[in-house]
Amino acid sequence: MSRTPDLRPDFLWGASTSPHQIEGNNTNSDWWRAEHQSQGHLELSGDACDSYHRYPEDMRLLAEAGLNAYRFGIEWARIEPEPGEFSRAELAHYRRMIETALGLGLEPVVTLHHFTSPRWFAEEGGWTSPTAVDRFSRYVEQVCPILDGVTWVCTINEPNILSLMSGMSAALSDGGGDFNLGAGRQMPIPSTEVGEALVRAHRAAVNVLREHTSAKAGWTVAQQSLIATPGNEKLHAELRYAWEDLYHQGARGDDFLGVQSYTSQLVDENGVVPVTESPDNTLTGWAYRPDALGIALRQAWEATEGEMPLLVTENGIATPDDTRRIAYTTEALSHLHDAVAEGIDVRGYLHWSALDNFEWGHWAPTFGLIAVDRETFERTPKPSLAWLGAVARKGGALEARG
Is residue 400 one of the residues assigned to a domain? Predict the structure, then answer.
């Protein structure tokens, strides 16, 4: 038996990537510098997956599997290597990517900023610099002419995590700590100062996109799916504001909200409860919680007052066991179907990630539907890719739960 959900006929089925994690040799970015100044605390991205050159193969594998969408990013550090100096060649490169996706029948979901910025932008003070909004707006305006035919544009990926990274970057550059927030680690709280600056930059970028393109504009939020323990509802609400609701409020008036979900955690009197060690934890140390996607969709829908379409722009699991990836995704999609049945407007599901890639300082966590040989760059589709493509071809139908 199978369960066929009531999804829109134009529902997007696809996978996501980010430029720094797959392209390789993003030498003008702040992340490239942080990797080389981390005194060994971070692994190096290097050639990454060489997708800068191999993107046609990556897209073809997704399309041939039966998917109809691909989320990828444009790298600001390539477009504007120095302040006010824009590369026509790099703009043409990303235009070719858009045209390749469209030619293969893949809806391009384009992200304009995915954690990485030009080095010079970071040196100016980053997102809290008085020039940040103007700098970002100018970059977005330069990108607009290549967005012809693009329906979905994400201005900034996971601004709440970007706020967190901004607060931790100094420690990384000094050789202390890393971004592993897995088992046993207390999560820090994202900087509201940086978050408010990102909201201003996002709103300005949306205005630019609406002036110069016909694309739907929004951004993506890393939904934490936090759950209050009894008696700790007030602290839960405060943490949800710092982690998510500041960014939900910043999305008001957008055309959509990108929902990104991996796991869920409790909130007690001390804050977010660290994940306990367990053999069920993923390679990132996160708890195995495929139900988090349903929680995330409901919380995002509630926070945006049911007035904004939701697009799942990331959901997945870091595991070497592809059977477990299929099991996780099957359950996550069943929770998505439940949310749709409740009336939540979900427009698509984009799996993280298309490729096993560089996971922000570490190569070990494998999220991909496609394995990549780091020596030869040979792509090997995993069974999960064919499985997800089959789900897409069946309109999202899943094997019924017992």
Answer: no
Are residues 191 and 252 in contact, defined by beta-carbon separation less than 8 angstroms?
no
* CB distance 71 to 109 below 8 Å: yes
* pTM over the 0.90 mark: yes
CB atoms within 10 A of CB 253: 13
Tokens of 207: 């205005």
3-class secondary-structure state, position 92: helix
Give the separation between CA 294 and CA 333, rounded to whole angstroms: 8
Residue pointed to by tokens 């073809």? 60
Mean pLDDT of 115-141: 97
The reported pLDDT for the residue numbered 267 is 96
CATH of the domain at 382: 3.20.20.80
* Cα–Cα distance measured from residue 124 to residue 129, given in angstroms and rounded to the nearest whole number: 6
Who wins on pLDDT, 101 or 176? 101
Is residue 402 a part of any domain in this protein?
A: no
Shortest CA distance to 205 belongs to which of 269, 139, 151, 298?
Answer: 139
Q: 120 is in which domain, residue-wise?
A: 2-391
Residues 199 and 207: their CA atoms lie apart, in Å, by 12
Number of domains in the chain: 1
221-234 average pLDDT score: 98
163 CB-contact burial (10 Å; exposed 0-12 / middle 13-18 / buried 19+): buried
With respect to residue 292, please indicate whether it lies within any of the assigned structural domains: yes
pLDDT of residue 402: 41
Q: Tell whether 87 is covered by a domain.
A: yes
Q: Is 15 exposed, middle or buried (0-12, 13-18, 19+ CB in 10 A)?
A: buried
Q: Which residue's entry shows tokens 């040196």?
A: 123
Rounded to an integer, what distance in angstroms lies between the CA atom of residue 169 and that of residue 176?
10
